[in-house]
């Protein structure tokens, strides 16, 4: 591949710095969240998170070095591999907290559902780029994208991992709407969705029904998810405007918070840094999403636009649903907060996504007429 | 490179700009909603929520479930639950700590109760995190604490179920005991367990912990400033654990336990037809009730420092040389390999010369001409030295492993040991030295490197009894839910079939029958009126004995150099129903120290079979025993009286 000097000139420093700031906040926050019980542990969470960030940055640099059009030629293959990993999980994976989502790779474990988020976006982008319709799609023209979504979606629901399943659904829906669906087709889908709800209810796991019911009426379950939400809101609220200070969050340090280094990591941050910190964090995320959308807008080809848009919607939905849940605006679903929640697979796959965004961004001027 | 395909045309850009404007707006609105909500929680409701976080008057209280009961095969309760009152301290206000410590110490001192070590931990207690400061307190303590509760802010009484080991010491090694989950186990359980949970540490309590444990319940309660629960906000009931029905027969277990009183060693009684364990005793024992509500340091030291190791489950983890009981394995191998005919005889002169050494027979003066049958009946060592030399160590080992030696039997109990069945390869790997032919001589009478567990011995003799099938020994018959619903019923599992012809089996059984029922047999103690028991004595040397007679005498007088006594038997001869293996550590001779224990178990088995749960009173029992003793031939008693050694 011929090297182009403009690649360096157009490197997107804003995006990179934004992400590095978020990663730094993430590691410090995990340090605080696991501070009280880290104790004598040889390999505390924040060190491991730091290691994952470094591995992620390595993957990120691979992801922006190779032209995204080259990567996308293999989008279906990559998606196939990711789905195959899900199959492996289905048969050989191991379970934590009653859900089977991990593959063990010697000393560390891999969560293929994180990988699928990325490959689904690439596969959908490739499909819509190759089958471009100016006037929007009819349902019958969408069966391949539906299939690309449905196979991993059902397998992830089976694990069960409602959170990741919902993310796949929302990201795909955003991309469908973005490329345009005929109004009539859209109405069909919506009607179908309404009728499918009771059926979906039937297929839901017991704990998922509990959570939906609890969301509709938190008083119903003051012990399970209800307790989590109450403690999370107490933690956030008690932070006040300026927060209690780093390592000083009583809710966090006394471990009233559930899952405080993974799904409820935002409560830890908001308790210790207050409205000022929490607000700035949300603004940082907003900037990240808007910047990604800007990359989508300025991409020099449709494929780049689609990839960047898909990734932007992934970031948006994860931030919005996680924060909304922690703030008690949405039911409790297990969705991690990008860059802040502890989790190796998530951090590595997110940084790879950022690599792709950098990729699209820095190639925007090449071959522009 | 990729051409111009897919590039956005001019008019499209305008269209997409429209779309992007909409999307930008949606993102901004959504994110503003989050910020508004954050403002509402942190600024508008901030001070209120801050207060709630400081008092945090809402507590999540765990409710411990009842652990499953453990029953014997007749439904008699062996392990039950009872209620324990524990003293818990939840520090609400740090300034109270001093007052609480001094008041508690004063109260305890006034009645001269021992002050628990945990009291000193109060000073270091983290706010809001409950810690247990005294367990299983008496009614008297309970009453005293309750009357002074106003002076003891943060001190509460917690009612928790604890174990009650009804059958006590006699079954301690089988059922094991429970104690609070350790930090290490907590981390490994990945969230499945929470601090304060009780987990099985040994025995069945450990092996079947997942079934016995049940599921924690929880209650959310509001507490006042004193830390007392004011009202319940919601409750999830705990789910009790499953009950286990054992294959153990409590009566046989008790008889075996009493027979071992004052001895150390093990007894295993099992059903050779399917591998069910009837009784399994390890002696000396310990009282598992000591572990209830946490064992005291004092008691723990007593148990763990006892030179007799009462905590060790000798039946499955004690490894002993099998001694003469091993000769049957050697005989089976020689018969199957066609190396001997049952009739061919060997002259025993009392010793066997091999290389530069002379190997003794236990009968100093020799047995004269012995064939296979006589060799088994009289346990002639020289006969088996010759067989061992013909077979070689590796062929003996191959057959021994078929009988289940040298590997764990797979019984449903933790910490089972495998024992050692030496091969030339094993020795090379272990000691980096080649196998010496002389070592085969020792191995062929069950000495040398050989070591087996009492359970392995019972399993191997069950295989001899049933014609060659090695079953996995099982101790749990079935698992039931608390409402009696069957969760799981265990099935017999065949593990191995010994390649042994029915002719070989018959010959060996005849030999074993002779050991007990023929004149000069070494197992006369088992000679019942019915003449139906087959068995084999064994005497295992603990240390190699010096050659000089004088030095031997001196050494043998010390208890720890005394030989281990072994006896294994099954009955009835035709279609055996019970196998018993007994090992008495430093007991001396198998026929005199171990066989009487086996006799008691066999008698108890038949008595139970005859009367079921309606046992006759003691006196009738004695009468019966007297008549039985009369009917046994005088041979055995005479032999024992004359001090004739069996091996």
Report on this model:
The complex is a heterodimer of chains A (369) and B (647). With 369 residues, chain A is mainly alpha-helical. Chain A has one domain (6-362). Helices cover 69% and strands 4% of the residues of chain A. Chain A has helices at 6-9, 13-33, 35-38, 45-65, 68-73, 75-92, 112-130, 143-158, 162-179, 183-203, 206-216, 225-238, 250-253, 265-298, 302-326, 344-362, and strands at 94-96, 99-105, 108-110. Chain A has a three-stranded antiparallel beta sheet with strand order 1-2-3, covered by helices on one side. In chain A, helix 6 packs parallel to helix 8. The radius of gyration of chain A is 21 Å and the shape is globular. In chain B, the strands form seven sheets. In chain B, strands 2, 3, 4, 5, 10, 18 and 19 form a seven-stranded mixed beta sheet that branches. Chain B has a five-stranded antiparallel beta sheet with strand order 12-11-23-22-21, with helices on both faces. Chain B has a three-stranded antiparallel beta sheet with strand order 1-8-9, with no helix packed on it. Chain B contains 23 helices and 23 strands. In chain B, strand 11 (265-270) and strand 12 (277-283) form a beta hairpin. The longest helix of chain B has 35 residues, at 10-44. Chain B has 647 residues and is of the alpha+beta class. Chain B is elongated and about 105 Å long. The interface between A and B is large, with 57 and 50 residues.
């Amino acid at each position: 591949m011929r090297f182009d000097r403009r690649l360096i000139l157009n490197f997107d420093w804003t995006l990179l710095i934004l992400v590095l700031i978020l990663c730094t906040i993430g590691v410090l926050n995990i340090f605080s969240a696991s501070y009280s019980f880290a104790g004598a542990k040889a390999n505390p969470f924040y060190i491991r998170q730091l290691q994952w960030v470094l591995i992620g940055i390595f993957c990120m640099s691979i992801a922006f070095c190779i032209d995204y059009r080259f990567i996308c030629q293999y989008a279906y293959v990559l998606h196939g591999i990711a789905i195959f990993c899900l199959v492996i999980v289905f048969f050989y994976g191991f379970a934590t907290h009653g859900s089977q989502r991990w593959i063990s790779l010697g000393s560390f474990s891999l969560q293929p559902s994180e990988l699928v988020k990325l490959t689904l976006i690439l596969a959908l982008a490739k499909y819509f780029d190759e089958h471009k319709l100016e006037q929007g799609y009819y349902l019958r023209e969408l069966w391949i994208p539906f299939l690309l979504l449905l196979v991993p979606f059902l397998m992830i629901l089976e694990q069960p991992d409602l959170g990741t399943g919902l993310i796949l659904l929302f990201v795909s829906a955003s991309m469908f709407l973005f490329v345009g669906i005929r109004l009539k087709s859209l109405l069909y889908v919506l009607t179908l969705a309404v009728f499918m709800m009771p059926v979906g209810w039937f297929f839901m796991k017991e704990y998922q029904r509990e959570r939906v019911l609890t969301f509709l009426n938190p008083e119903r379950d003051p012990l399970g998810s209800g307790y989590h939400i109450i403690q999370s809101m107490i933690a956030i609220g008690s932070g006040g405007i300026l927060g209690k200070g780093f390592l000083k969050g009583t809710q966090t340090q006394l471990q009233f918070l559930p899952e405080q280094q993974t799904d409820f990591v935002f409560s830890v941050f908001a308790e210790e840094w207050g409205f000022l910190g929490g607000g700035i964090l949300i603004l940082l995320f907003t900037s990240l999403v808007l910047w990604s959308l800007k990359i989508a807008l300025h991409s020099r080809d449709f494929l780049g636009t689609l990839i960047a848009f898909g990734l932007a919607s992934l970031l948006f939905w994860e931030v919005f649903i996680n924060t909304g849940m922690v703030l008690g605006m949405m039911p409790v679903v297990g969705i991690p907060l990008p860059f802040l929640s502890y989790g190796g697979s998530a951090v590595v796959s997110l940084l790879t996504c950022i690599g792709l965004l950098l990729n699209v961004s820095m190639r925007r001027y090449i071959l522009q007429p | 490179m990729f051409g111009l395909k897919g590039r956005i045309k001019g008019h499209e850009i305008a269209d997409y700009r429209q779309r992007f404007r909409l999307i930008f707006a949606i993102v901004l609105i959504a994110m503003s909603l989050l910020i508004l909500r954050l403002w509402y929680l942190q600024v508008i409701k901030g001070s209120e929520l801050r207060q709630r976080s400081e008092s945090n008057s809402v507590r999540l209280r765990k409710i411990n479930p009842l652990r499953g009961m453990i029953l014997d095969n007749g439904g008699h309760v062996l392990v039950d639950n009872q209620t324990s009152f524990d003293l818990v301290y939840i520090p609400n206000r740090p300034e109270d700590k001093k007052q609480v410590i001094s008041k508690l110490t004063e109260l305890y001192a006034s009645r001269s109760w021992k002050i628990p070590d945990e009291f000193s931990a109060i000073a270091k207690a983290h706010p809001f995190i409950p810690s247990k400061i005294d367990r299983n307190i008496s009614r008297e303590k309970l009453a005293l604490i309750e009357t002074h509760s106003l002076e003891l802010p943060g001190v509460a009484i917690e009612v928790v179920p604890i174990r009650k080991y009804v059958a006590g010491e006699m079954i301690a090694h089988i059922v094991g005991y429970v104690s609070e989950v350790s930090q290490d186990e907590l981390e490994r359980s990945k969230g499945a367990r929470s601090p304060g949970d009780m987990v099985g540490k040994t025995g069945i309590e450990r092996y079947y912990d997942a079934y016995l444990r049940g599921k924690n319940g929880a209650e959310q309660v509001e507490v006042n400033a004193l830390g007392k629960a004011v009202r319940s906000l919601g409750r999830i009931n705990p789910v009790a654990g499953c009950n286990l029905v054992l294959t153990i027969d409590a009566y046989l277990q008790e008889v075996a336990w009493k027979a071992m009183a004052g001895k150390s060693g093990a007894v295993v009684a099992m059903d050779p037809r399917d591998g069910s364990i009837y009784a399994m005793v390890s002696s000396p024992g310990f009282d598992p009730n000591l572990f209830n509500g946490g064992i005291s340091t004092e008691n723990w030291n007593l148990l763990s420092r006892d030179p007799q190791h009462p905590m060790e489950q000798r039946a499955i983890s004690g490894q002993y040389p099998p001694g003469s009981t091993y000769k049957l394995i050697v005989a089976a191998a020689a018969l199957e390999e066609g190396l001997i005919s049952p009739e061919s005889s060997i002259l025993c002169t009392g010793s066997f010369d091999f290389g530069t050494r002379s190997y003794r027979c236990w009968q100093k003066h020799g047995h004269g001409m012995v064939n296979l049958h006589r060799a088994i009946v009289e346990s002639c060592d020289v006969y088996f030295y010759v067989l061992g030399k013909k077979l070689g160590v590796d062929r003996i080992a191959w057959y021994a492993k078929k009988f289940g030696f040298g590997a764990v039997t797979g019984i449903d109990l933790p910490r089972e040991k495998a024992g050692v069945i030496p091969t030339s390869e094993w020795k090379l790997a272990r000691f980096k030295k080649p196998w010496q032919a002389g070592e085969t001589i020792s191995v062929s009478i069950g000495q040398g490197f050989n070591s087996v567990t009492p359970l392995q011995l019972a399993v191997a003799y069950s295989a001899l009894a049933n014609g060659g099938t090695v079953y996995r020994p099982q101790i749990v018959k079935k698992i039931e839910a608390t409402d009696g619903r069957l969760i799981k019923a265990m099935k017999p599992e065949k593990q191995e079939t010994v390649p042994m012809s029915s002719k070989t089996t018959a010959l060996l059984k005849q030999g074993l029958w002779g050991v007990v029922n023929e004149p000069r047999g070494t197992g006369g103690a088992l000679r019942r009126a019915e003449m139906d028991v087959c068995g084999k004595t064994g005497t295992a040397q603990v240390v190699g004995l010096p050659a000089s007679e004088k030095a031997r005498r001196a050494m043998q007088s010390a208890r720890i150099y005394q030989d281990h006594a072994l006896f294994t038997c099954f009955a009835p001869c035709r279609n055996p129903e019970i196998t018993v293996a007994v090992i008495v550590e430093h007991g001396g001779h198998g026929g005199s120290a171990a066989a009487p224990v086996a006799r008691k178990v066999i008698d108890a088995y038949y008595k139970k079979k005859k009367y079921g749960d309606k046992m006759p009173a003691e006196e009738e029992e004695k009468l019966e025993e007297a008549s039985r003793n009369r009917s046994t031939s005088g041979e055995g008693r005479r032999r024992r009286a004359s001090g004739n050694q069996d091996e």
